[in-house]
């Protein structure tokens, strides 16, 4: 049976950072909705242009197009064994749609690691984030600096600061998370799928806690 994990947490919690490590360890495909939108934007697709109008303001892209994009991604052959979802679902309607589509793929959500980080730490994490152009690897100028400034340690590509990591947009993304995404904490708790992880610890400690939660699942 394929296995699906959903990483939950506010923007800047460390979902992308942890997803890279875990996907490799469990041989799962990392499916990041934000990366998929940014890839569409780079290729100037219609979806990318539509998404950009929302992303630049820190708003959510409408559910229907987001769900369709994820369905297409999860139905590709590399996801036969499942996936590690990062950034999706972000609304209860997306979570309902995910549950429905996973039954079609003969699976279901196995665990929801929820990386919890208080709001006051998020702004600094996002404003100091540097992202790699080729593969979305993330660094932080203070907490996880690259060996050479501006260059990705893992693939040598250029590091850039995302437009939506500027402080005005960051504040709105945090608000949008609180209003539209945080209800998913209770949603998955009720289903007994939630594993809460203290995201204020070091990157290595968070990884260890995450691996322990996944071993038990
Ligand atoms: P998300 O995908 O949840 O938005 P990221 O994984 O991109 O979050 O992390 C946001 C920023 O915080 C990045 O710059 C990353 O290097 C940094 N970061 C991630 N985890 C930690 C941590 N445990 N402690 C300090 N900084 C972290
Ligand atoms: P973060 O690192 O803050 O978690 P992401 O890279 O996941 O950010 O998302 C960046 C932007 O892409 C969001 O602010 C939103 O506009 C859009 N987006 C990503 N995932 C979704 C989703 N599941 N539903 C709607 N919009 C999304």
Offer a quick outline of the entry:
This protein is of the alpha/beta class. It is built from nine helices and eight strands.
Folded structure, characterized:
With 217 residues, the protein is of the alpha/beta class. It has one domain (3-117, 180-216): P-loop containing nucleotide triphosphate hydrolases (Rossmann fold, 3-Layer(aba) Sandwich), CATH 3.40.50.300. The chain has helices at residues 15-25, 33-42, 46-55, 63-74, 92-104, 119-127, 167-181, 183-190, 203-216, and strands at residues 3-7, 29-32, 82-86, 109-116, 129-132, 138-140, 159-160, 194-198. Strands 2-3-1-4-8 form a 5-stranded parallel β-sheet, with helices on both faces. Strand 5 and strand 6 (138-140) form a beta hairpin. The longest helix is centred in the C-terminal third of the chain and has 15 residues, at 167-181. It binds adenosine-5'-diphosphate (2 copies). Residues 9, 11-17, 125, 128-129, 138-140, 143-144, 199, 202-203, 206 line the site of one adenosine-5'-diphosphate (ADP).
Write the layout of secondary structure elements.
Blueprint: E1 3-7, H1 15-25, E2 29-32, H2 33-42, H3 46-55, H4 63-74, E3 82-86, H5 92-104, E4 109-116, H6 119-127, E5 129-132, E6 138-140, E7 159-160, H7 167-181, H8 183-190, E8 194-198, H9 203-216
Helix pairs in contact: 1-9, 2-3, 4-5, 6-7
């Amino acid at each position: 049976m394929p296995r699906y994990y959903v990483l939950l947490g506010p923007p800047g919690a460390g979902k992308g950072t942890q997803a890279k490590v875990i996907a490799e360890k469990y041989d799962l495909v990392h499916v990041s909705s934000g990366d998929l939108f940014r890839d569409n934007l780079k290729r100037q697709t219609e979806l990318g242009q539509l998404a950009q109008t929302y992303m630049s303001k820190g708003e959510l892209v409408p559910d229907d197009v987001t769900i369709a994009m994820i369905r297409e991604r999860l139905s590709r052959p590399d996801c036969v064994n499942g996936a590690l979802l990062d950034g999706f679902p972000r609304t209860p309607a997306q979570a309902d749609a995910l549950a429905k589509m996973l039954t079609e793929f003969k699976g279901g959500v196995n665990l929801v690691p929820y990386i919890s980080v208080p709001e006051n730490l998020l702004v600094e994490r996002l404003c100091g984030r540097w992202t790699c152009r080729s593969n979305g690897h993330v660094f932080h100028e203070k907490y996880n600096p690259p060996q050479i400034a501006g260059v990705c340690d893992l693939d040598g590509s250029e590091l850039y600061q995302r437009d939506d990591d500027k402080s005005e947009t960051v504040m709105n993304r945090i608000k949008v998370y609180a209003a539209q995404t945080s209800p998913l904490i209770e949603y998955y708790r009720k289903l007994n799928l939630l594993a809460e992880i203290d995201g204020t610890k070091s990157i290595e400690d968070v990884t260890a806690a995450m691996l322990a939660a996944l071993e038990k699942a």
